[in-house]
Write a structure and sequence with these properties.
Helices cover 32% and strands 22% of the residues. It is an alpha/beta fold. Helix 4 links the parallel strand 3 and strand 4. Helix 1 packs across helix 10 and helix 6 packs across helix 9.
Amino acid sequence: MTSVFIDGAVGTTGLEIGDRLAGRGDITLIRLSEERRRDADARAEALNAADVVILCLPDEAAREAVALIENPQTRVIDASTAHRTAPGWVYGFPELEPGGREAVAAAKRVANPGCYPTGFLALVRPLVRGGLLDPGALLSVNAVSGYSGGGKALAARFEDERDPEHIDTAFRAYGLGLGHKHVAEMRAHAGLAHAPVFLPAVVNTYRGMIVEVPIHLGQAGGSVVRLRDCLAAAYAGSATVTLNRDPHAELFVERQAGTDRIELFVFGEDRHGQARLIAALDNLGKGAGGAAVQNLNLMAGLPETAGLRL
């Protein structure tokens, strides 16, 4: 039996994780009442009592929580941005690199990937590693998420009809300053020399995500079939990451909403010299709560997909 404390259990990601762990006989959740959650001593006690702590907190609060852990046996999964490129932390995308599952399973500290980077990296990293995409390529990332992927403040504006800035529009671009916190994570774990231009937007639906990377075939293997074959080989046997070869597949934001899967596509024809690499996932599933549970399963020596929505 593995004891787990979700610090930030009442937030969006914490609730998603709790739902996936509910009723499992191989996990014991350490729970704090609302009053005790506000008690620093009670929280520190829970952090040190758990076999695995999952942090669903803002970045600075996540760093503070890690500093409170004195028990050398307590292992951590951080769902914030705080440690995704930090030394000593294993990046929690088990399928991304050869040996990734073993690295997560052995880790004391695991940084859960961001939702947008999950889609971007699933597409780009195997191509860079396989020599089909130049690490010096100048890339852009067009990404659209359900409004829960836009952060707490933006989601609140979508949901609160009493808010004078309530959003009832179908599409809203954001991150226009081009300094989004996910960019460093994308560059580092893709193995790129240059940061991609990141173009996020949210739409008026709660969950789901489409991430697209347009490329010129001249800088990426020269063939759509070669790109598809590379991605298929990278994720062969995976229950959570799959390649869809259907050139007529219909894409929409909610295609993988409610699941913990990520579905990859390569659209294009060689004669046009261009391709569209596209990932469909749930920003709250494989992009957040589902990924954390998958990492927890590996760290606890449990079946990797236990509790996942596949």
